[in-house]
Amino acid sequence: LRQYYSDLLWSVKTQEGAGYIYVVIEHQSKPEELMAFRMMRYSIAAMQNHLDAGYKELPLVIPMLFYHGCRSPYPYSLCWLDEFAEPAIARKI
């Protein structure tokens, strides 16, 4: 398995306290039917790297897809629940 790394990491302070936000950026020139699942994998990898670095809480992860392909708009859903054989059932459970 290859390692995945977050592209950007910000340390932020809010009224609720300090925290971290990872922004996972993917550039894509060809549409990919399972892109939402791929972006979810990248997000989970960023969370795992954060935990492996010694942090005790999960960071907020914002996945972003920059699509610059010929087909416009992007032809597939970016909600991973839509990628199941039965999306309506997946959404209910």
UniProtKB/TrEMBL annotation:
InterPro entries hit by this protein: Rpn/YhgA-like_nuclease (IPR051699), RpnA (IPR010106), Transposase_31 (IPR006842)
GO biological process, one term: DNA recombination
Molecular function as annotated in GO: double-stranded DNA endonuclease activity
Chain segments annotated as coiled-coil in the UniProt record: none
Every Transposase (putative) YhgA-like domain range: 1-93
PANTHER family: INACTIVE RECOMBINATION-PROMOTING NUCLEASE-LIKE PROTEIN RPNE-RELATED, PTHR34611
Family stated for the protein in its record: Belongs to the Rpn/YhgA-like nuclease family.
Protein name (database record): Transposase (putative) YhgA-like domain-containing protein
Origin species: human gut metagenome
